[in-house]
Amino acid sequence: MKAAYSFTKLVVSDLDAMARYYREVYGLTELQRVKSEIDGSPMDEIILGIDGEHGGLILLNWIGRAAPSGEVILGFTTPDIASLFGRAESAGGTVREAPMERPEAGGLKVGFITDPEGHLAEVVEMVAP
Predict the structure, then answer these.
(1) Alpha helix ranges (H) inside 1-129
(2) Is 75 within 8 Å of 124 (Cβ atoms)?
(3) pLDDT digits (tens, 9 = 90+) for 16-31
(4) How far apart are CA 30 and CA 15, in angstroms?
(5) Closest CA to 53 of 25, 32, 74
(6) Could you tell me the pTM of the whole model?
(7) Domain harbouring 104, CATH code
(8) Quick one: which of 36, 48, 77, 128 could link to 28 by a disulfide (CB 3.0–4.6 Å)?
(9) Contact predicate 99/80, CB 8 Å
(10) Which strands, in side-by-side order, build the sheet including 94-102?
(11) In sequence order, which residues have a C-beta less than 8 Å from that of residue 118 and are 6 or more positions away?
């Protein structure tokens, strides 16, 4: 089964200022705000889109820690998150947070893995209602 590249999370220091920038410069609109955590670290996000549609850009702010310059989190969707995580581990990846249903994300299954060089990816499986 293939995964689909779906979104990019840009790690920022000032969430509201950067959301304003992407609204003013690119015409993106705020679709949703999420408070959650990744691998035990609390974070806030703003999901941006165009004309009310998902646009693939999510701004993320780590709560209580500085944002490294240029940090991004790649986002993939898959119909079978368990298989993808198995393939990632077999290929040298590391599970940072096992997939689990996230009420704050509309009940989606979400998990986090790093590639062999440590780059973080968020993997999402759409859960049938």
Answers:
(1) 15-26, 81-90
(2) yes
(3) 998 988 888 668 899 9
(4) 12
(5) 32
(6) 0.70
(7) 3.10.180.10
(8) 48
(9) no
(10) 29-38, 41-50, 53-62, 4-11, 72-77, 120-125, 108-114, 94-102
(11) none
Residue type, 27: G
> Helix and strand tally (H, E) in the chain?
2, 8
pLDDT per residue as tens digits for the range 41-58: 899 999 998 877 776 889
**Residue 51 or residue 121, greater confidence:** 121
pLDDT of residue 33: 94
Residue written as token pair 């999402």:
124
Pick from 38, 30, 95: which is nearest to 62 by CA?
38
How many residues are recorded in the chain? Answer: 129
How many domains are there within the chain? 1
Contact (CB, 8 A) for 76 and 56: no
Query: Position 55: which residue type?
Result: G
Q: Rounded to 5 degrees, what are φ and ψ at 3?
A: -100, 155
Q: Given this model, what pLDDT does residue 60 score?
A: 92
Q: Which domain holds residue 113?
A: 4-125
* Backbone conformation region of residue 51, classed left if phi is above 0, alpha if psi is from -120 to 50, else beta: left
